[in-house]
Amino acid sequence: MGKRGPKPTPTALLKLRGTFRKHRSKGEPDAGDAIPQCPDWLDEQAKHAWSQVVPQLAGMGVLTEIDGNALARYVTFWSRWKAAELFLAKNGSVYPLKDEQGKLKCLVQVPQVAIAHKLGMALSRLEADFGMTPSARSRIQAMPGGADEDDDPLREFMHIA
Question: Based on the structure, what is the number of domains in the chain?
Fold first, then answer.
């Protein structure tokens, strides 16, 4: 059986939200500050998405080198989702299914509808993990200059170790 409860929020996001408490995050590994390099195997649309998203995430302070695989997955899903949506815009979401006499039997959904839906759900999860949705960002309080937890003016009153 897996672990219960919500997934722990990454320390970088907790710091941006202003809710980081050092005593609650003991033993969490430091991922460093390096930014992941764009994999050469990505398609052109995914590389374009990478070039747009990486500076934004790095600017938010939530991206490290270890996040490269998750980000590659995100931009790959985004590229495939975009292709499915372009197909649907051009061809529609259903096609006619006819019987042996050529009479319309019913309308059938094209596979791209399900593909776009599943990729959209996967993208939503990854966007929330990276803080790329409005609700995820609403919980983040950006601190100018990358303030550290030791700079918390309420620290002495909260008895934080």
Answer: 1
Domain membership flag for residue 63:
yes
The pLDDT value recorded for residue 128 is 87
Whether 145 is covered by a domain: the verdict is yes
Structural domain boundaries enclosing 84: 11-20+34-151
Higher pLDDT, 149 or 94: 94
pLDDT for the residue 75? 96
Q: Sort 8 into a burial class: Cβ within 10 Å, 0-12 / 13-18 / 19+.
A: exposed
Q: Which helix (H) or strand (E) holds 61?
A: none
Whether pTM > 0.85 for this model: the answer is no
CB 82 within 8 A of CB 46: no
CA 39 → CA 43, 51, 101, distances in Å? 10, 11, 52
What is the distance between the alpha carbons of residues 141 and 69, in angstroms, rounded to a whole number?
Answer: 26
Spatial distance between the Cα atoms of 67 and 74, rounded to a whole number of angstroms = 11
Distance CA 35, CA 65 (A): 5
Burial zone of 15 (CB within 10 Å; 0-12 exposed, 13-18 middle, 19+ buried) = buried
Look at residue 52 and tell me if it is in a domain.
yes
The answer to the question of residue 47 being in a domain is: yes
Give the torsion sign (CA, 78, 81, 82, 83): positive
